[in-house]
Amino acid sequence: MRKIFLTLSIFSLIISCSDDFVDIKDEGQTGVGDFFKTQEDAIEATSAIYSFLRSWENTGFPAQFVFGVTGDDVEKGSNPSDASFINAYDQFTYTVSDDGVRGYWIGQWQAVNRANQVITNVPNIEMDATLKTRLVAEAKMLRAYFYFNLVRIYGGVPIYDGLPADGNYLKSRNSADEVYAFIVKDLTEASDVLPQTYPLADLGRVTKGGALGLLSKVYLYMKEYQKAYDTSNQVIALGYSLDPDFNHLFRPAGEFGSESVFEVNCDCSAAYGGSQYAEVQGVRNQFGWGFFTPTQALEDAFEAGDIRKELTILREGETTLEGDLIKKNDPQAGNTWNQKVYVPTSLNNSTCGSYGSIQNFKILRFADILLINAEAANELGNTAVAISNINKVRTRAQLADTTASTQSALRLAIWQERRVELAMEMDRFPDLVRTGQAETYLGPLGFKTGKNELFPIPLDAMNASAGLFTQNPGY
């Protein structure tokens, strides 16, 4: 398969002062000027967007720095002396110069660029018209996902609807409201085109349900509760269902199951390799590096009898349901890890060079859709629907129905259910920010209201913006 060389514009200089982040054209690669000629080119360029979803920047350290450790359900992990710089994210002491702040920014913009290459260039290719329309829709949904990540972490950012015709990437930040409107437009247009299912050979491509599901979550962040409710109802009507077995859901056999709404295919392949998502979090020196481990606060958050607790937290000395004895090989490491990324030894495929490289990355599950629907319904005063949906999630966890019955009590119950259902899936920090609970839960860790809701724009991006960027408050 040919490598795709997509020339990065001057905007790459805004997001990076290092050649490490600029694509260099090597012998055997295809330059962008010679690319985007055939249907195969269109397919390969779209696949390049998908390859980013499993990347280090989107599933490894940079993503965990900003979405993981900043929540109160995840801490650094490993051993105290290993990568102690990560504590800056747990304690909210990171600065404009931190590599994580910069690395996540760079990665998401590179992904936006890949999507825009498809959105701009594929329409000009003579090829199957239906496929062309679908590939552009896929790129729009994926671009919306990257912008959703950017706006939640950095606030308003520049909007690039395709590659700028004049080649000028130097522009001011758009407002967060404008970015959200752009995301809604992309997802709405994508959902009108994308199919709900694909042949097995295309497993993992984004779907109508994925676009609508992400749109319902975006509306929830916008506090557009009627739209979040209506859109999540559209997703529910598509036929998704909860996996009855919470453990099965997170093992390889449960991938792309009935609960999968938006899931990254990390199957080991010659073209794209696997993913380090599981390796980074695997049991220290038994399976992986042992980072990003559950906190005591998460342990304490589960109700008595909630089966999710022991299926979320993997413990030193336990024997898993699949027969692995958990035994770390670092006496200074902690004793608990994220069980949701555990790949049984019998199923591990090391062809791609690391433990758990086949473990898919679940971006959006049907349980999340039910809780989005419940939250939106409750804010609209429809407590009966809210109670029904939260109880569906609780029933799988082998818990009794919620006792909450008023709007205010249900609001807290739904937020709590999100905490334990989606634990360690990089939802906790943005949930705390959007619901106004961050100071309560994260204040003792160093979170400051009015500052830490957002990360800073990286220093080199500020310096390269020719004065067009305004820094986020407090930095």
Automatic annotation (TrEMBL):
PROSITE patterns reported in the protein's UniProt record: PROKAR_LIPOPROTEIN (PS51257)
Major subcellular location class: membrane
Record-annotated RagB/SusD domain positions: 259-475
Domain SusD-like N-terminal stretches: 81-220
Any single Gene Ontology cellular-component annotation: cell outer membrane
Keywords: Cell outer membrane, Membrane, Signal
InterPro entries the record matches: SusD-like_N, SusD_RagB_dom, TPR-like_helical_dom_sf
Subcellular location(s) per record: Cell outer membrane
Family that this chain belongs to: Belongs to the SusD family.
Protein name per Swiss-Prot or TrEMBL: RagB/SusD family nutrient uptake outer membrane protein
Organism per entry: Epilithonimonas hispanica
